[in-house]
């Protein structure tokens, strides 16, 4: 189902396995609302999938917020777009009858998911962050107790400095989240190991509910 209402162009696939939390799929730069649907089906079979398209264009490529240069974010835009995305999630939950989703974000999508956790933590039940960076230099204090976060970084990632990813993990932990941060022997692109780890982590979270 493709939607143009609720504030963002998006795709929605209803779930057919009771008890699985919905996934909020957040694509990387140049992706769209169809980009991560196969990944979502792989890591959470039977879960409802909600996949919005980023509303910012960079050289014609959709993103979820503006950046000033590679690795340099327009933090005012990060904050504004995180609020818009949280409002979209609330509207989609009402429209489609969804529980709070777990975000599954890659690259730019992982960064806006991290911003959501810090700025509007009520919007998400948890998150799988694939190749994330710290989205804000000076975020507000968030209350993330009870939320679980999986971070998967690449040891040879040319885009995300290792210390930046570690800083994000520490920031989320300090806010009370249960963070698992794994560094894989790979670059910025996703691998089958990412898929397997995300699938196993999501299954474990459901077992803990």
Structural features:
Rossmann fold; eight-stranded mixed β-sheet; 12 strands; 209 residues; PLipase/COase/thioEstase; alpha/beta; two-stranded antiparallel sheet; 5 helices
Write up what this structure looks like.
The protein has 209 residues and is an alpha/beta fold. Strand 1 and strand 2 form a beta hairpin. It contains 5 helices and 12 strands. The strands form 3 sheets. The protein has an 8-stranded mixed sheet, sandwiched between helices. The chain has a single domain, classed as Alpha/Beta hydrolase fold, catalytic domain (Rossmann fold), CATH 3.40.50. The two termini are 29 Å apart. This is Hydrolase MhqD. GO terms for molecular function: hydrolase activity. It holds the Pfam family Abhydrolase_2. InterPro entries: AB_hydrolase_fold, PLipase/COase/thioEstase. Keywords: Hydrolase.
> DSSP helix count?
5
Helix-strand sequence: EEEHEEEEEHEHEEHEH
The CATH fourth-level homologous superfamily: Alpha/Beta hydrolase fold, catalytic domain
Q: In the CATH scheme, what's the topology name? A: Rossmann fold
What is the approximate shape?
A: globular
Helix content: 25-40%
Tally of strands: 12
Which strand order spans the largest sheet, edge to edge or round the barrel? 1-2-4-3-9-10-11-12
InterPro entries: AB_hydrolase_fold, PLipase/COase/thioEstase
Protein name: Hydrolase MhqD
Keywords: Hydrolase
Domain Phospholipase/carboxylesterase/thioesterase: 24-200
